[in-house]
Amino acid sequence: MDAALGAQAFAGRQPPAVRAAAVRGDPGVRTYADLVGELVDRGLLAGRWRQVFEAVPRSEFVPAEVWRQLPDRCVSVVGADAWGALVNSDEPIVTQLDDGVVGGPGVATSSNSMPSMVARMLGLLDVENGVRVLEIGTGTGYVAALLCKRLGADLVHSVEVDPAVAELAADALARAGYRPHLRVGDGEQAWPGLGLVDRLIATCALRFVPHTLLRQVRPGGLVVAPLARDFWSGALVRLRVQGDGSAVGPFCGGATYMPMRSHRVPDLHEVRGRGRARAAGLDPARLLDRGFALFAGARLPGVRMVHQSVAGGGVRVWVTSEVGGASTASGEEVWQYGIGLLWEEIEQTWWEYESAGRPGAEEFGLTVTDRGQQVWLRDPGGIIGTGKGEYPRGV
Ligand SMILES: C[S@@+](CC[C@H](N)C(=O)[O-])C[C@H]1O[C@@H](n2cnc3c(N)ncnc32)[C@H](O)[C@@H]1O
What keywords appear on the UniProt entry (predicted)? Predict the structure, then answer.
């Protein structure tokens, strides 16, 4: 189908029919069965999740108007073939830009998440028959549908902050025959009258785990959420709620999700001043290690980092601090601006990370109490604080 015909076919809101249940392995055309098969081959669908994914076609939860997320922008997907290929791929599908406001900068604000990430998160949630689940971020309704298929709709609760997104999800769920408990509202606030759930899954990224979320989960229950801090591009955390209402658990790999609305922050702080150049004592590409990001995020609160690949290989990083310092580094050159010597602080933190044994991301964990959250290394007693020397030394 050419692009013009595809655009006509997409004039309505209903997505075109794709071969969701086609036999796996058809040459040339990737099907939903191929996608599920890939998740099985990667070991992401244990127990009953395989049958559940097979029974809930992703296409039923993806509207006609969608965008593909590229590293620097979202591009509109035009034509039924392109739409079907995206739906049957292991890619996130952007379903809303700029909170639905027309003419905005084109920032993704709702999506149907990457299937392998959905499978990983549902696996970490460790559901068994009879558990009550609360999802924060209904989005397209796909995760809610998977949970309904696995547990029965009456045990599934899902909250979405955006009324237009919530309405589309409710319609898609009803068309597919699922009627979970849905609420339009801010998932950071307690769901009135919900009572305690056994599992909570957030499908939008949190900057911190609000204690209000923990208070909705019974002691012994689990919280699975993507966290994104100033220094992190995103990591999953799996917390077990304790008898005293706190929660403790490990980081479980990377996860890039759009932030919870009230947890949005601008990319970088604004910093002014003349630049001072110096040689880099550290390849900036090393900073992109997730273990270092968790370590540095705890050691350097208020410091934000973003990065970009540069032509010919390598990366350029920008770091800024809330006190008004900045530096940018690529290859061997560093420029520092404003207050302080931020790059020196970054390098110092890198050497501390090295002397802690360069721990991998899975060696870090998080404790959340009603006073806030703390990152720890190797065991919950090994809090990584700010300042010097309180984290446990390496091997
Ligand atoms: C990645 S999408 C969720 C994907 C969804 N689970 C699915 O199956 O399609 C993130 C969603 O979180 C929603 N969201 C953001 N902040 C929220 C909040 N405070 N409370 C509830 N939902 C929120 C966004 O509007 C967006 O629809």
Answer: Cytoplasm, Methyltransferase, S-adenosyl-L-methionine, Transferase
